[in-house]
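Weekly sync, protein design subgroup
Attendees: M.S., D.O., the rotation student, P.L. (late)

Item 1: inverse folding check
M.S. brought a backbone from last month's batch and wanted to see whether the design step gives back something sensible before we order anything. D.O. pointed out we never logged the input encoding, so this time it goes straight into the notes. Structure tokens as presented (427 positions):
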């Protein structure tokens, strides 16, 4: 029996490898076909935690010899992205790396790369900050990347400022042109948004069959279950069937949450590697895992609620608070706007709000911590996770929403009660 580390099997903060689950065939086919199409630029978009990067990296391992990844933060400029990509090429251009197929870097490009590297280092020593040299153009960068038969992944592109975001469109057009000489070169941008238009503003030249926009949806219950079953086999552990169903229900389509709960359960039982004899995980292990989760996410949950509710003028109605209060009092299923409005009216007689759709949409947006989720196919809303729902229920209906005393023990108990309810119902 092979031995695996539990931290390599359940990976809530990094792309899954051993527990990678193939997505819906149509999604896989769209991505693979785009990767096989010369010059095709790609945008992967969808909610945070849906497995965009996991899917992409596993497909690239099957189809690409090399790739480089730039992970964006809010302070990134596009020039900083170029420098980051250039830095990652260093190991290819400063050593005699070859692959099984024997590709090599041309002496001319190697010399050009080393000259640019020296210029950047010289300017950095003089100014104490990294400066993009005029010679490091998008065209040169695309050739450097193309020479090693790689693609450039720009992860979380939605995080950078909008004024910088628009430059991605120009970069993609340059990489398209370079693909005539280097078939593999392309840009793949990922973003936690509900529309590729929020990642970049592109024109008709990109729209003309040169850009593939692939939506990565939430995982299905079957897909989430497969993560757990693969972890069972690799670690020689057994989850009670009811526990699997509860974890999947709590995850609400997010694989990262499944990974986190399973990892917590293993750590609590001191399961660090593959077990020699099968270990069974019980309901009490799941309860402890939830307690761990709450203890390590206090500040994040507090921030998400505060950000979602926002501030209102004195003596004004806080519509977002009313919506969250009402949704937190009902079960986990999705609701139509009309049903939500009826629930609000029962809590606050005489309440009228002709802008309910605006506030619901606003609560789904990143600026409100995406606390709600919208099902486009059914036109219904729900909390993005049961954890947030329980937190909102406790704080909005039992305490003043800014009076964060120390409610986590009570919230955890609410979740545990819900666990027991699920177990009894055998969902």
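Designed sequence read out in the meeting:
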């Amino acid at each position: 029996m092979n031995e695996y580390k539990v931290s390599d099997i359940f990976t809530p903060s990094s792309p899954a490898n051993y527990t990678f689950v193939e997505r819906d065939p149509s999604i896989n086919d769209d991505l693979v076909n785009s990767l096989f199409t010369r010059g095709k630029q790609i945008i992967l978009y969808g909610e945070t935690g849906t497995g965009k990067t996991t899917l992409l990296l596993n497909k690239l391992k099957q189809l690409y010899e090399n790739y480089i990844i730039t992970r964006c933060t809010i302070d990134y400029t596009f020039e900083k992205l170029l420098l980051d990509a250039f830095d990652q090429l260093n190991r290819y251009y400063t050593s005699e790396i070859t692959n099984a197929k024997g590709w090599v870097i041309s002496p001319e490009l190697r010399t050009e790369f080393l000259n640019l590297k020296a210029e950047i280092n010289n300017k950095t020593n003089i100014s104490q900050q990294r400066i993009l040299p005029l010679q490091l153009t998008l065209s040169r960068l695309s050739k450097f990347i193309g020479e090693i038969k790689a693609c450039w992944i720009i992860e979380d592109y939605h995080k950078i400022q909008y004024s910088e975001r628009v430059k991605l469109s120009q970069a993609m057009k340059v990489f398209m042109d370079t693909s005539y000489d280097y078939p593999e070169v392309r840009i793949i941008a990922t973003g936690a948004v509900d529309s590729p238009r929020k990642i970049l503003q592109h024109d008709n030249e990109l729209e003309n069959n040169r850009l593939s926009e692939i939506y990565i949806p939430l995982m299905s219950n079957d897909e989430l279950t497969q993560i757990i079953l693969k972890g069972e086999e690799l670690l020689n552990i057994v989850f009670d069937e009811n526990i699997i169903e509860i974890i999947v229900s709590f995850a609400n389509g997010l694989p990262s949450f499944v990974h986190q709960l399973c990892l917590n359960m293993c750590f609590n039982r001191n399961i660090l590697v593959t077990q020699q004899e099968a270990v069974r995980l019980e309901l009490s292990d799941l309860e402890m895992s939830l307690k761990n989760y709450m203890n390590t996410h206090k500040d994040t949950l507090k921030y998400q609620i505060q950000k979602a509710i926002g501030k209102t003028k004195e003596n004004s109605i806080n519509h977002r608070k009313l919506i969250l209060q009402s949704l937190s009092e009902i079960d986990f299923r999705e609701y139509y706007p009309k049903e939500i409005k009826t629930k609000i009216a029962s809590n606050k007689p005489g309440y009228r709000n002709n802008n309910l759709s605006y506030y619901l949409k606003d609560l789904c947006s990143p600026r409100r911590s995406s606390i709600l989720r919208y099902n486009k196919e059914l036109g219904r809303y729900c909390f993005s996770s049961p954890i947030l729902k329980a937190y909102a229920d406790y704080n909005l209906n039992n305490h003043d929403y800014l009076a964060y005393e120390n409610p986590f023990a009570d919230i955890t108990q609410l979740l545990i009660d819900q666990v027991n309810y699920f177990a009894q119902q055998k969902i």
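Discussion: Residues 107-127 form the longest helix (21 residues). The CA atoms of residues 39 and 60 lie 16 Å apart.
Action: P.L. to compare against the previous round before Friday.
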